[in-house]
Amino acid sequence: MIPKLIVFGGNGFLGKRICQEAVTAGYQVVSVSRSGKAPQSNELNDKQWMREVQWAAADIFKPDSYHELLKDASNVVHSLGILLENENYKQTLSKTPTNDSKSYLLSFGAGPNPLKKSSPYFTYEMMNKQSAIILADTFKQEILKKSKKEQTKANERSFTYISADKGFPMIPSGYINSKREAEIELEKMQKYFRPVIMRPGFMFDERRNAIGPRSFIHTALELLYCGNKFLLQNKLQFMNDLIRPTVSTQQVSKSVLTKIKNPDFKGVVTLEEILKT
Ligand SMILES: NC(=O)c1ccc[n+]([C@@H]2O[C@H](COP(=O)([O-])OP(=O)(O)OC[C@H]3O[C@@H](n4cnc5c(N)ncnc54)[C@H](OP(=O)(O)O)[C@@H]3O)[C@@H](O)[C@H]2O)c1
C-alpha cells in the first residue's frame, strides 16, 4: 500500500515544497488548508506534481473537519505558524514590488490595522503551539481507534513539526518560546508516533527570483553571514549566534522526507543538519 502523508499548510511557502518532495518520493499526498486551494504557479514542473496532490479544505482548530483524513495516514506534517502576531506581515512579505518598495518594507512588523478585526487564533500560543498540539492529539485519537497491534507500530508513523532555529532580532521572544513549548509537548507523544522536529532558519525558495521583501531580507542575511565568515572568521561567538545561515525550502523539504523515511529517527533536526542534506 502506498503510504499517505498529510501536510497541514501544504499550500504555504514551505508546505508546497514538502508536498512536491513527497510526491517525488512516491507518497500519496494530501494538503490541508482553510482554502483547500493549490498554490498559484505558472511553472510547468509545479503544475505536474500539483496534479498528484489532493488539496483538501479544513481548519486545524476544528478536528471534526479533518479527522477522517487522518484515519489511514502514516505521516503528518504541521507546516503553519506565525512570526509576528500581526496579520498584516504575511501579506507584506508576499507583496510584489511596486515603486513604493520602502513603504512595504517599513510596514513589515507594523501594528495591526485598527479597522480590521483580528482573528482570536492569530497569537503565538494558538498558531505556533496549540495548533500543533490539537493536530497531534487528533492523530493520536485516530491511532487509538486501531487494533492494539497496530497501535504499537509507532516507528511506522511520524509527526513532523516545523519549528525554528532561533528567535530573530526584533521578533518577540514569544515566537521561539511557543515553538519550544510545542516541541516539548510533541516529544511526549512518542508512544504513538515518531516526532520529527525541524529547526530551519530564514527560508527562501530556489525557484522564486521575484524582487520583494523576502528576497531583500534573504540577500541582507546572506551578506551578513558572509561578512561574519570571511571578515570576522566566525571568531565572535555572539555574532555566530546572531547571524545564522539561510536555507531553501527545497533543502528543508528534502531533509523532512529523509527523516520521515527513516524508521529509526525521532527528535530534533538542527539547522546545521538540514544544511548538510
Ligand atoms: N518562512 C520562514 O522563513 C520560516 C523560518 C523558520 C520557520 N518557519 C516555520 O515554517 C512553517 C511554515 O511557514 P510558511 O512561511 O511556509 O507559512 P505560510 O506560507 O503562511 O503557510 C501556512 C499555510 O497554512 C494554512 N493555514 C493557516 N491557518 C490555517 C488553519 N487554521 N487551518 C489549516 N490551514 C491553515 C494557510 O493556508 P490557508 O490560508 O488556505 O488556510 C497557509 O498557506 C511555520 O511553522 C513557520 O513558523 C518559517
Automatic annotation (TrEMBL):
InterPro entries according to UniProt: ComplexI_NDUFA9_subunit (IPR051207), Epimerase_deHydtase (IPR001509), NAD(P)-bd_dom_sf (IPR036291)
Gene3D superfamilies in the cross-refs:
NAD(P)-binding Rossmann-like Domain
Q: What is one GO cellular-component annotation here? A: mitochondrion
**Which GO molecular function annotations are given, in alphabetical order?**
protein-containing complex binding
* Sorted UniProt keywords: Ubiquinone
- Keyword Transit peptide set for record: no
The NAD-dependent epimerase/dehydratase domain extends over 6-79
Name of this chain's protein = Ubiquinone biosynthesis protein COQ11
